[in-house]
From TrEMBL:
<protein>
    <submittedName>
        <fullName>DUF4398 domain-containing protein</fullName>
    </submittedName>
</protein>
<dbReference type="InterPro" id="IPR025511">
    <property type="entry name" value="DUF4398"/>
</dbReference>
<dbReference type="Pfam" id="PF14346">
    <property type="entry name" value="DUF4398"/>
</dbReference>
<feature type="domain" description="DUF4398">
    <location>
        <begin position="28"/>
        <end position="104"/>
    </location>
</feature>
<keyword id="KW-0732">Signal</keyword>
<feature type="signal peptide">
    <location>
        <begin position="1"/>
        <end position="18"/>
    </location>
</feature>
Amino acid sequence: MKNAVFLTLFGASAAGCAAYAPSFGERLGASEAMIRAAEEVGADEDPRAEAHLRLAREQVQRATTLSADGVPERAQRMLLRAQADAELALALLREAQAQARTHEALEEVGSIQRQLR
């Protein structure tokens, strides 16, 4: 009985999610917002992050062209890629920042250990 209720609720939920497909404008806005977020925290300053940020910008441009050319499905997929690349740029920047903080902390610990000897 529990399984039947769960499957019914799961099916209804999946159908509801599948029924809503964001418009090109909504997806474009989300992609551009993610790009701006990555830019604002300095993703352009890290080589790996900058490469993915550049890809995201290019993909937004391609998506706009595809949409204007009447290929909405490809445009939507290109925007998904742009958003994913912008998210990756942000994650790579955060990783680089965390590694830099870790390196600084290790140097400070080493300095303290030398002072205690």
